[in-house]
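User: Please predict structures.

Assistant: First:
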Amino acid sequence: MKYIINFATWFMGLFQAGGKQFANWVATIIPLVLIMLVFMNALIALIGQKKMNKFAKASASNPIMRYMILPFLAAFMLGNPLAHTMGKFLPEYYKPSYYAACAQFCHTSNGVFPHINPAEYFIWMGIAAGVQKLGLNTMDLAVRYLLVGLIMNFIGGWITDFTTAYVCKKTGIKLSKEANLTK
């Protein structure tokens, strides 16, 4: 009987600890993410959706714009998963590469911009807790992770271009490299 009581106590303690953590998030992380989302939506409204779409279409001609700047701005302004929608303005050939760069960026930016991927913020918080225990500044790590992420996400997007070319060649599929600016 003692084992059952100990297990039941542990089991309830698990949920109590989860409740305490959730209450902490409601008081700290959730308001931060909410205010950042409101700010981003207000900024997009001020800039205008048509201008945002025009910028995305213009980004199709340059790999740095396609795989570094556009994913950064889309993730910053729209968050995950909405940032992936900016790829709709790119030519078919570049869509897989944009998705690769954008999906990776939504992870490498969480330390500095938690509104981009709030569902995975707990991963960053776990890493940050370890860094804080060492007495180090978490923002130093967050900025480095962001900068390395920008470069690696660009490389990942560009490498996906080569993968797309290989698959197209092997399958005989021809994908357009021209943006359809008439939409």
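Second:
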Amino acid sequence: MVTIAHEQVRKDWDTYFMDIAYMVSTRSRCPRRHVGSVLVQGKKLLGTAYNGAPMGVSDCSEAGCMIVEEFELKIVDDVEQVTKKQRCIRTIHAEQNLLLFTDRIDREGSTVYVTDQPCWTCANMLANSGVREIVFHRSYPKDSEKVITLMAQKGITFRQLDGYSPPEQAGVSVIS
């Protein structure tokens, strides 16, 4: 008779799908940040994507990053504040690739798991994509306030996965 000494703990669905998003991010060749996203309908995985250059085009690891600087003016308590942002324009974001490579009908009422909080552009695209929920792990403070407001206006559940640790195999390292 064989007895099992211990029972393995089963991961919850959020952890399971976020683990997949992090593993997908390992395909990225972006030297600044690896981002992965997955589309889920119920408990069914419908698509995956990561950030990178368009197919067939040299990526940042081959041709270097194409960094542009943007400045955003905010008025807080009648005081003007300027925020400087640097963005790579060679890279298509993981969320954008996910929308390009999945069907609208599959996105209706679905959930997107993404390793990083969406930027303003991705948030706008997701807001029009039919998804009902966005779950992310790492915050993106540069656009956070605007994105949270947008998601509330659209009625999209928007939540950070607290207490989550990416799988070791994802080799997570972030350069700001």
